[in-house]
Amino acid sequence: MKYIKxxxxxxxxxxLLRLDLNVPIKNGIITDxxxxxxxxPVINFLIKKRSKILIISHVGRPKGKINKELSLxxxxxxxxxKINQKVGLIRNDILGLNRDDLFKNSKEQIIFLENIRFFIExxxxxxxxxxxxxxLVDIFVNDAFSCSHRAHASISKxxxxxxxxxxxxxxxxxxxxxxxxxxxxxxxxxxxGGSKISTKIGIIKNLIPxxxxxxxxxxxxxxxxxYLGNPIGKSFKEGKCESIIxxxxxxxxxxxxxxxxxxxxxxxxxxxxxxxxxxxxxxTNDDLILDIGPKTINRIKDTIENSKTVLWNGPAGYFENxxxxxxxxxxxxxxxxxxxxESIYSIVGGGDTIAVLNQINVTDNFxxxxxxxxxxxxxxxxxxxxxxxxxx
Length: 392
Hints:
By secondary structure, the chain is α/β, with parallel strands linked by helices. It folds into 2 domains: 166 residues, Rossmann fold (3-Layer(aba) Sandwich); 202 residues, Phosphoglycerate kinase, N-terminal domain (Rossmann fold, 3-Layer(aba) Sandwich). The chain is 32% helix and 17% strand. The chain has 13 helices and 17 strands. It has a 6-stranded parallel beta sheet with strand order 5-6-4-1-7-8. Strands 11-10-9-15-16-17 form a 6-stranded parallel beta sheet, sandwiched between helices. Helix 9 packs parallel to helix 10. 46% of the residues are buried.
């Protein structure tokens, strides 16, 4: 893979920069600017190199149709303020654009094309569409790791027509994920949560041969507890998962990987209730398991203490109610403690997990926080991402 940071002569070169600026917009107002902040390094890098930057991104799922509510205009305006520089937005039909239509003003340095998913050819990975885009510029840069699990025209097919490079954020994301897939420093532990074990089985099975500990929390853990003969009351449980759990335990035994699951829990009669700590054999029919208990928290903290690398995806409980957020907060605080003395490398991914970190303002105390969602999970499953394959 070639990296944009290694390219020396970028002055006046036209760069087609694929970003993920799929931010939440309500009534024209951006409600979370995280993804815009994350692309500032590559934009500032190209500005300093005096490149001509043509940015493509998407917002939402317009399914090949123009939707004014999903325009990139608010993003352009937000970015203008952040970099203190004029940012143009081309609203013309991309298929009618020619190279000479862009950067007519010699001082113009950054132009956005309108939402790339307004064009049905994008999600069809259309070769002619990619070829047309390629004629507008000199080189292509993918700095949208979070979109790289999609075989779309501006992610995958475009690389067949232009010299193509990985951007700064994409390089950082891959280097971080290598720390938990190939360039591992052991002991290594994974804390994995979420409601459905079936959606994470691919990750768990791919990580077991490489990891020392897999810690299963959240709604997923209910299936484990039930499988082991423990009552779980009216807690969420996914159906027909016995063979999946059986496979997890057998695989972990073959690879000497410990599977850690709750030893005690925090329950409520409803999600709005106050937490009550119970041993596993004390759970009644009207109990909802909504967090891990103190014994489990201590065991997880001990595991983190003895780890050199930790991957975290999925909160430990129903953190939306502060009464059931203690498990997630304590996990976060322990990792932060280890990070401060540089005795651990930590990676966090998943919207809910990031929300937990934001609630206690510790996001900056982790080595890497991924906003990549589906791409993050598929990479951990060992799947080949079309956008990454295209760059190699």
